[in-house]
Amino acid sequence: MIINLVTAVPEYFTDIFNVSIVGRAVRENFVTFNIISLREFADGKLKKQVDDAPYGGGAGMILKVEPIYRALKFLEEKNIKGQVFLTSAKGPIFNQSIAQNWSQLDALTLVCGHYEGVDERVLNFVDGEISLGQFVLTGGEAAANAMIDATVRLLPGVLGNPTSLVEESFAQETLEYPQYTRPEDFLGFKVPEILLSGNHGAIANWRNEKSTKLK
Hints:
Elements: E1 2-7, H1 20-27, E2 32-37, E3 51-52, E4 62-63, H2 65-77, E5 83-87, H3 96-102, E6 107-111, E7 128-130, H4 140-152, H5 163-167, E8 174-175, E9 185-186, E10 189-190, H6 200-210, E11 212-213
Parallel strand pairs: 1-2, 1-6, 5-6, 5-7
Antiparallel strand pairs: 3-4, 8-11, 9-10
Helix pairs in contact: 3-4
């Protein structure tokens, strides 16, 4: 899978995809990341300006449409653009189902939004908007990172034990049952006896009862 990140802050992603499960997915060639700096596609010989004041007045600066359009055209010409989403507080909230759908794509491009906004005309060049939740971030880079983590771990072969994906939270429209490991007794807080019984049928029933159904 190819994942492109179009961003005004490429430094955010320095070394971020070299650790944990995502890092292993990169090293084992399950996923390739392309960090696309908007400044490379901005006007100006010296100051590559990627944002500007909004028409009609207002606080802050918003991302310009031209650099984003040019960056997406560049990816299109390389035939690696895939589906394109803009991180935005106005978009539908990202969830496990979306992560599953994204994990089946050959290529995905995330345009990292900006807390003050993005020129509305950008929406003509993306497949949709996507939000991490009902709160405001200073930029879409953090949101994109979380979405990527949720997506990459679903790629076939990335996780050592594929059954982990079946039993985990959200996979069956439930939150996962409580889990325990050694020691059996920690400061008087004990592992439930049923988990020590060796009765796999009873354990399965207990886990099913303890799983929380999503609303």
